[in-house]
Amino acid sequence: MPTSLAAGPPTMPVESETDAARNGDGQLNAQRDAPVGGQAVLEGVMMRGVSNWAVAVRKPTVEQLREPHRSPEEAALGEIEVSAFELTSALRRHRALRLPILRGIVALGGSLAIGFRALEVSANAQLPPEEGSDLTGVGADGNGDGDGDGAAGEPQEIPRGVWAGTIVVAVAFAIVLFFLIPVGLTSLIKGQLHSSVLFWVIEGVIRTAIFLGYMVLLSRIRDLRRVFEYHGAEHKTISCFEAGLPLTPVNAQRFSRLHPRCGTSFLLVVMIVAIFVFAPIGLPAWYWLVLTRILGVPLIAGISFELIKFAGRNRRRGWVRAIMWPGLKLQLLTTREPDLDQLAVAIAALDAVLERETPGELAAADLVGVEVVA
C-alpha cells in the first residue's frame, strides 16, 4: 500500500571512503557491487532488492491537479508517496533456472515485468481523481462533497489492458527496430557480399548505428529530461549505498550519475553480442534470417546479462574499466544531474527496500541466482 515518506531507514554499515574512488570529474564511484537495482519512472524511481521492490513518486498537490496544464517542475512539488511490494523470484524457487545465461534470461524477464508495473504505479500517481469528484471535498452546491461524506474522489487508474497492450507493442517495436530492420537492410545487398562474415559485420554495424541514433533522439526529447534526471538520481543513490555511506541527498549527490550496471550499458552490450551470436548462422534464406533474429533475442540477452554483471563485480580491474568505458559514456545521453529533491525520492524508494531486507547481511544461499541491473 502507498505510504508517506518515513524517517530512520537502515543502511549498509558505514565504512571509510576506500569503498569509493574519485573519477576525473571529482565525483565518487563505488568500488563494490550490491544486489540492488532500479529504474527511473514518471516523477519517481523504482528500487529493487533481493526479495522486495518499491516505487517512490512525487504526488502532485490538489492545487496542481486543478490546473489543466502544469510544468513537470510544478508537478514535482508534492509529497513523496512510496509503494512497496514483495519480490518472488523464480530463480530462488527453481535451482535449474540458476544456470549461467538461463538465469539472465529469467532475471531479465522478471525485471521487465517489474519495470512496467513500476511505470504503471508512477503513471497512476500523476492522475487526478475520477471525473466528477471534487478535489477539496466540496460538492457542486458548495455545501459539502458530492457523496456527503467529505471524502475526496477515488483516484483514477490506467486500465490493465492498456498496459498489456503497451508492453506487447514496446517489445515488438524493439525487436523490429534493432533486429529485423538491420537484417532486412543487409539482405538487400546480400547477393553482392558473397561472404557470411561480411554480412554479419555489416548487419552488426547497422544495428549498432540504429541503436546509437535512437539513444541520441531520446536524449533530445524535452519531455524526457526529468525522467533522465531521476535516472541519474537512481544511479547516485545506488552508488552511495554500495560505497557504504549514509543515504542522504547530500551524500548521494557526490557520486557519479554513471553506473557500470546501467541498463543503457546493457543494451549496448546486447548490440555487440548479437554480432557474434548470429555469425555462425551464415547466409541462409531470408525467412531463416528473420526467424533466427527473433529466436536469438533471449540467448543474446542472457549472455549480455552475464557480461554486465561480471563487469559490475570486477569494476576495479583496469581492463574491465576500459571495456566498460563506451557504455558508461553512452549513459551521458540517458542520465542528467538530479537535484536534491529528486535524490530524496530515489532514497525513499531504496529505504523502503532496505526496511524489509539487509543485502549486506544476506546469506550466500539467498543470493544464488540473484542478478539485478541498476
Question: What does this molecule look like?
Answer:
This protein is of the alpha+beta class and 374 residues long. Helix content is 52%, strand content 9%. It has helices at 62-66, 72-75, 90-93, 102-125, 160-187, 190-193, 196-219, 225-242, 249-253, 263-278, 286-313, 318-334, 340-354, 364-367; strands spanning 2-4, 20-22, 28-30, 37-41, 44-48, 52-58, 80-86. The strands form two sheets. A five-stranded antiparallel sheet has the order 1-7-6-5-4, with helices on both faces. Strands 2-3 form a two-stranded antiparallel ribbon. The longest helix has 28 residues, at 160-187. Mean pLDDT is 80; it is low at 1-16 and 135-151.
Q: Number of helix segments?
A: 14
Class by helix and strand content? alpha+beta
User: Total strand count, please?
Assistant: 7
Strand content: 5-15%
Would you tell me the overall average pLDDT? 80
Order of helices and strands: EEEEEEHHEHHHHHHHHHHHH
Q: How helical, in percent, are the residues?
A: 40-55%
Q: First CA to last CA: what distance? A: 24 Å
Question: What is the radius of gyration?
Answer: 23 Å
What kind of sheet is the major sheet?
A: 5 strands, antiparallel
Shape assignment: globular
Low-pLDDT runs of 5+ residues are: 1-16, 135-151
Kindly report the spatial arrangement of strands forming the biggest sheet.
Answer: 1-7-6-5-4
